[in-house]
Specification:
Elements lengths: L2 H21 L8 H20 L3 H28 L1
Helix pairs in contact: 1-2, 2-3
Amino acid sequence: MNWSDYIGWFGFAVVLISYAMVATRHWRVRSIANQVGNIVGPGSLGINSFTYKAWVPVVLNVIWVSMAIYTLLQLLSQREKKI
């Protein structure tokens, strides 16, 4: 196993844990914790996919991370307005 495989398995675990936390209602979908999981997990999977030149999952994960960053920025902006 090379370095990108370890990153890929880490990303897999983060995605799975994030999904489980939302599914069991420990996290809300629009929570900061979930969005961080949706950045780190797919980002790690995207790195792994990129090293193997698997372009379809690379594109999927780039879009997934982009959406999570956008949502995280919205959540942080809303939080600042409340303060």
